[in-house]
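Service request form, structural biology core

Requester: graduate student, group of Dr. S.
Request type: structure prediction, single chain
Budget code: on file
Notes: please return the result as structure tokens.

Sequence provided:
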Amino acid sequence: MNSNELHEWSKELNLSEEAIEQIKIIRLSDPSRLVGGGARNVPGEFTSKKMGVTIQFESSKVELAAIYMMEFDDNVLEFYDQPPSIKLNKVGWKTPDFFVIEKDRAYWIEWKTEDELIKLSQKKNAKYYLDEESNWRYLPGEEYCKSLGIEFKVGSSKDINWTLQRNLIYLKDYLGSEKPNEEVISSVKNNIMASPGITLKKLIDSSGEDFTLDDINILIAQDILYVDLFTSLLVEASSVKIYCTKEQNRSFINLWESSREKKEVSVVKITNGSKILWGEIQWKILNHDIKNLFLVSDSGDYNEVPIETFERYVSEGYITGLNSDDDIDDEKVKELITTAAEADLKIANRKYSIVKKILQGDEIGPIKETDRTIRNWIKAYRDAEDLYGNGYLGLLPNDKNKGNRNRKIPTKSIELMEEVINESYESIKIKTAKVVHGEYQTLCENNKVPPASYQTFCEAIRKRSIFELTKGREGDRAAYKYEEFYWSLEYTTPKHGDRAFEIAHIDHTLLDIELDIGNGKSKKPWCTFLTDAFSRRILAFYLTFDSPCISSNMMIIRECVRKYNRLPQTLVVDGGRDFHSIYFESLLAMYEVEKKTRPAAKARFGSVVERLFGIANKLLIHNLLGNTQVMKNVRQVTKQVNPKNHAVWNLELLTERLENWIDEVYDIREHPAHFMTPKDAFNHSIASTGKRFTRLIPYNEEFIILTLPSPKPRHRKVHPGKGIKLNYYYYSNDKFRNREIENSMVEVRYDPFNIGVAYAYVNKRWEKCYSEYYSIVNGKTEKQIKLITEELRHKRKEFEKNSSITAKMIAEFILESEEIENRLLLEKQGKSIDAVQLTLIEGTGKNDDMLNKRPDKTDVNFFDDDMDLVFLGRDN
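Core staff response, request fulfilled:
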């Protein structure tokens, strides 16, 4: 809203001058604080089209859901996260989660989980309470708002429709899409009119080439077609019903309701207590097993019917189902049924078949039970009929309730035992059970009660939660591996999303391998993975010798767009500083990628990518020469087995091998998460949930500039005749010849993938600058330049820190690489094995005179493409 619209809106609502002034302050203010997650909260930022800025959320389960509802609610005009704090009576300063401006009102709102609100309402002098209409309210907030004409609301997780949430997330990519042409819309509607209420799957199958799933999704998102988004999940295409309009849907519901028979007939359910209509007689299913059903009629007659016969009568229409309004709802009856084991039911079935025959006057044949036992069964049956209305329940065994289950230890002794375990055993002193039991005995003597034995004391400790014990004795982090998952009892949203490219995880790991960096030295590389949470496909990876930084993040994003021309809708990251830089967040906001930050020291929140690290190490890295598994017992490592002395792989070879492993092994290996390969799961998801062409990102210079990191410091001097100096190189541009630009400081960015170019911000635009040896790099593929750049940057950093590097080095490196390539080509043609031996010896830092010697045939080093191994041994 502009100022005039705000004035008209406030005038319509008859707001006070004080309220109008406060709303103006809120609209002009930045968020009053940066949010942070708790132990289990996942905070992040949501890129809002409605507001044109990123909106913070402190919890992805509650506040993010609220943001989605406000973003897609036409009645909501504006909403602001973390508005300026307000001073409340008896509370002090408070910062509500959001301030919301709707067409007919304005309000502050605080969002919490239902469980949290219940706990807060039970506190002494509670400020939160549940009113008569089951709405949560906050008394101090309401008192503050009385004089302003503005409301203070409390939102609960119970108020969130999670089916709607999933549908809004599913449709988000289509909201700004261009509407399909009239021919497509007409074709879709004609198919629906021919069969109103057609399922989404059938509509897609009937489309031919007239329209696509993406066309249908756009029409649903723009309210041109109607789907009940509150009850139907769009990802379940076989059950989603589509109508041309909401009124059409309502008319079919009314028609169905008005034409129903008064006597409601339902499907036949073979469950205990279900009612059926057989002819004109109503029967109830008492019990059943794999062979027979046991029935009782309203008049008290009993019948035993084979399952096969029963199913045939149902299919032929002789037996129909009846809705039961008087199903068993007594708590005792429910307990008897739900606690009965399979063995109990087997015993009860045998008793029932005998009792039924006796009550009907039939012969029962020889049985092992005595007459007294049979009489007890019949009595139990009739007692259960009187008590529960169902005699079968009286035949269920009750052995589990027999015996004296009361503890023989005095109650006071038990209380003291629990007290001493809490205070003395579960402490950071890590006392032994024997010592603490001695303290317990002393405590019991002082209170004049008999102590429990040491065995009983240890048994009480063993019954304690291992998580709580470890937490008390060793701290939160040590106990985390024993912490159970807290599954939400409410239906929310799937933690891995509903489709590919909805949620992705990004993280770094130091690989367990030493790589050759020349001159007989080696170093371990860092690997960054970007993984799709739904399909488990590796979307991109990036290898570097640099520790995790903004550069790694930008490059992994760039790799993803290069391969797929799109980015995930939500990106899950850890709390590292590199994920919270202004450049990274700006890039995500530019392409409307929602960022979520998983809690610190909670590895399970990133289990998708954390598990991938282990798989990559186990199936690839640990099978390569130079892997560092042996370093786990570093004191036992000798020079002979030290990985540093076996570093034959370099960054280029490992990058190529890792890429092959991802494409040829990991991507086509069945994943236990969905019993499909990541590749198949990914492709099936894209086909069944839409290709989402509106999410496509062109891999062009504009995108590349956005992914470029800045050096430290960000500004560099323009040297007359030379240009800017960056990463030991001079870069020039024609714009630098302007006397106003010479000797000035300009903002610069560098390309980690290409050391031949850089960018400078001149005259309010980014200008591409070239090094003097750009012509040598030009023509190389991006992959070649990337690997050359990484090798040179690292060698300069490691070995020539005190000398000046020249751009000529890159030319020398390329010429040397091409010479090696020519030798490898000759080897591939079977003309020589010098190239292979030469490459490996160069990688291990051997002396130059060794390179001129032909290797002995009995000492051959070779690389096997199929087995992921470098073999060092004899030629057989």
